[in-house]
């Protein structure tokens, strides 16, 4: 995997699809096709090359972590190929590092021993695709607030009493005063069975309750799958 392709491919799938769609537009198809070329071609190529480098890193890491693993054996691992192809499609649609890192970790864990069941892996890829970095961040924090604050070098105040919302606003200052937004995020995580049910965000409780884990068992599996540890 040392020699990565650097030349522009003759038929980028996304570009060809875009051209096909634009060519179906009466009259304006020509100018729109030129606009597509000018705006999207270079960024798509840049994203594709960066992602290929990420994939090369994953394969190299797998070969160091799994004994006797060869590219030939990986090519016979249908679950790994499926996850890699689907993750790559998602990666080309995204630029946020949190989601790209989650996709990289998902590919890695799909080929490691004790990988989640294949259908569960598909659910996890859908979640990476649909959830925002705020969803992923809040989920990880609520899984283990103390560890999360330590890992992210955020102070762990000696709260007396308060609500889980206080912890969220402390860990994510950009969400301070954005109650409707993070309430919505938590509800969506609950709808995906990743966060325990109940209206606990604004209930006054002891410090122990404030920093207690709020995630489900499936959330723990999901977080392990998308974390590159």
List the total number of helices: 12
How many DSSP E strands? Answer: 2
Domains (count): 2
Q: Give the SSE order as H and E letters.
A: HHHHHHHHEHHEHH
- Summarize the amount of helix as a percent range: 55-70%
Instruction: Report the portion of residues in β strands.
Output: under 5%
Q: Which structural class matches the secondary elements? A: mainly alpha
Oligomeric nature of the chains:
single chain
Instruction: Work out the radius of gyration.
Output: 21 Å
Major sheet size, sense and barrel closure: 2 strands, antiparallel
Mean pLDDT: 87
Fold blueprint:
Layout: H1 13-23, H2 29-65, H3 71-75, H4 78-92, H5 97-111, H6 118-130, H7 133-143, H8 145-151, E1 161-162, H9 164-171, H10 179-191, E2 205-206, H11 207-210, H12 217-225
Antiparallel strand pairs: 1-2
Helix pairs in contact: 1-2, 2-4, 2-5, 4-5, 4-6, 5-6, 7-8, 7-10
Structural summary, described in words:
65% of the residues lie in helices and 2% in strands. The relative contact order is 0.09. The two termini are 22 Å apart. The protein folds into two domains: 13-130, no CATH class; 133-225. It has a two-stranded antiparallel sheet with strand order 1-2. It has 229 residues and is an all-alpha fold. The model is unreliable at 4-11 (pLDDT under 50). It contains twelve helices and two strands; from the N terminus they run ααααααααβααβαα.
């Amino acid at each position: 995997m040392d020699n990565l392709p650097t030349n522009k491919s003759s038929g980028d799938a996304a570009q060809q699809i875009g051209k096909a769609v634009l060519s179906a537009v009466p009259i304006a198809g020509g100018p729109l096709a030129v606009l597509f070329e000018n705006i999207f071609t270079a960024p798509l190529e840049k994203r594709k090359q960066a992602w290929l480098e990420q994939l090369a890193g994953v394969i190299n890491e797998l070969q160091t972590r799994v004994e006797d693993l060869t590219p030939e054996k990986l090519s016979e691992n249908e679950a790994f190929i499926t996850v890699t192809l689907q993750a790559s499609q998602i990666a080309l649609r995204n630029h946020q590092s949190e989601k790209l890192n989650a996709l990289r970790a998902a590919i890695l864990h799909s080929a490691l021993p004790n990988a989640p069941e294949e259908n569960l892996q598909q659910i996890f890829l859908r979640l990476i695709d649909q959830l925002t970095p705020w969803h992923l961040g809040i989920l990880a924090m609520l899984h283990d607030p103390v560890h999360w604050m330590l890992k992210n070098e955020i102070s762990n105040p000696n709260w007396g009493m308060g609500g889980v919302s206080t912890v969220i606003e402390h860990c994510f200052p950009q969400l301070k005063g954005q109650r409707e937004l993070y309430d919505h995020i938590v509800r969506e995580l609950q709808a995906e069975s990743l966060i325990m049910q109940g209206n606990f965000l604004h209930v006054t409780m002891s410090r122990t309750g404030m920093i207690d884990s709020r995630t489900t068992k499936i959330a723990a599996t999901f977080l392990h799958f998308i974390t590159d540890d």
